[in-house]
Model the fold of this input.
Amino acid sequence: MSTPVGRRGILFGGAAIGAGALVTACTGNTPAGTAATSPPAAPAPAGDNDKPGEKVVIGFSAPAADHGWIAAIAKNAESAAKQYSDVEFKPVEPTNDINAQISAVESLIAAKVNALVILPNDGQQLNQVARQAADAGIPVINLDRVFPDKLSYRTWIGGDNYGMGVAAGHYIGKTLKDKGVSNPVILEIQGIATLPLTQDRSKGFEDALKTYGFSVTAKQDAQFTVESGTKVASNLLQAHKKVDAIWNHDDDQGVGVLAAIKEAGRNEFFMVGGAGSANAMREIQSGSGVLQATVTYSPTMASSAIKLARLIAQGKGMSDLVENGVPQSITLASETVTKDNVDKYLPLGFES
Done:
């Protein structure tokens, strides 16, 4: 996956293992936006695992913030590290250049950090340097875009792309069934169609809709950009004079999608977003437009990755689990945010 697309993915606060609960118990994709201004994803909870322990240095590397979700990844990681007096946070310059990120990670290996949190621009291309860190005895916490070699990381944490599609499909399917709609026109606006994460989202959406006897009428990818979101949504609306529901995979590109809908003056349908941006949640909260829900793939996962790195570096496990060590893989649940629960999720939203 040479295109730096992330994401995305899940609201840890409301996930199966919440960001806040993670330490007591021990959230591919979007462009164009401003830096996240939301508060830290989750306050450090009180508990034995949170008492100051052995001082650890945690290295951090991620892509440059070319959109809201990635900007929030870096902010959340830094905020989580600041919650602990026994953590020294050592970030390297964010970059969207593969070779530059490899060099940056190599500098952290040379500095002999106690743990490394890496969100790679491309898991395949950074696999070797992550393996170098692991072989040097530095535990790697692989964030979101997975390294193909499991020997290259100690723990992976990321979102559930298939689950996003399932959540969106169930919300749309149930809503249409409850309205008594038959043979609905359902449109799907993807991110980048060739990416596995996008394909997983589409498959989950398709599978969930099937349980209601529905299917996608038309879909088109919008490249995770605001500009393409506007263009694709405009084209789809022109091609379909009546629409019942739209699922847009990504709230950052959704800024453009909503602009096109407003420009077209269309409101006969409802829409579901993806990722859980703050601006999407505020739109849902207002109840003034077509956006009724969003399914999460939250950058709060970066906060949790830092917490996991600290536990692993200090030789601790997740205290609500029986096992002594942190799990090898944690997949966050995709939550459905609606007007009924948006107040709970809004503090964890990121700015597009």
Q: What stands out?
A: Residues 98 and 125 are 7 Å apart (CA to CA). The first strand starts at residue 56 and ends at 61. The chain has a mean pLDDT of 88. The two ends are 23 Å apart (CA to CA).
